Amino acid sequence: MTEARLRTFVALADTGSVRAAARRLYVTESAVSAAVAALTRELGVPLVQRVGRGVRLTPAGTVYAGYARQVLGLLEEGRAAARGAADPGRGPLRLAAVTTAADQILPELLASFRARWPRVELTLEVGPRRQVWSSLAAHEADLVLAGRPPSDVAATVLARRPNDLVVVAAPDVAAGFTLDRTPWVMREPGSGTRAAADAYLAERDAAPPRLVLGSNGAVIAGAAAGLGAALVSRDAVGAELDARRLVVVNAPDLPLDRPWHAVGGAAPTATTLLFVRHLLDAPGWTAA
Fold this sequence. Notes:
Keywords: DNA-binding, Transcription, Transcription regulation. The chain is α+β, with helices and mostly antiparallel strands. Helix content is 46%, strand content 20%.
């Protein structure tokens, strides 16, 4: 049950195709098939089944893929911990951030961190809330920047930063704003901001028209263009508010307090803690 076989199986689980897995790993299709066959023999249960020209995981394969991801993540975490312990300034750091955090708070932080610690091997994964917390749970990320961690994820909150969510709209839309009738511009399902907006409206039995856009930037631009109101972080719309392209709508029970969290695993690596100390030097961040 080698690391190479586990990586091959996870690639097959992700892509659903022997050919696609082989392309991802730069190996032959026969090598992928041989690796999965060897795992199947060792486990004594079928892991995949043919479906047309592709393959699909069996129930046993689906369960095993989750464990395989965690094993591979732990191996990477172990390498990072060892290298970081030897020299934190040269260790690897795997960051994961929700899209809004990546847009709002990471660019300046990463630039100043790279200037201070240029030899840290830094990677960044940006995705929706579910994806980044799954990465932390599977040991595929060393530090997550997002909202509050889910209760079912083993996590250590290392730092926090205030974050107010407000409803904004173009001035003419704001002038006629009503909770039930004014259209809302929203992120896609799975976004933390979308979940907050849905919960806010549901708690008030409001069902306004909704327009879904694919990114935080698109939501802000759509609101500024007059497409509707939007629930966003106040930090994300500072320039638009200053220029009066957007104004804060006087909606009930707002702003919402949704602080940013910097969250690591149970045993953060030395390089992770190096980044957290840098984070705490930035305005607004406090130790958890």
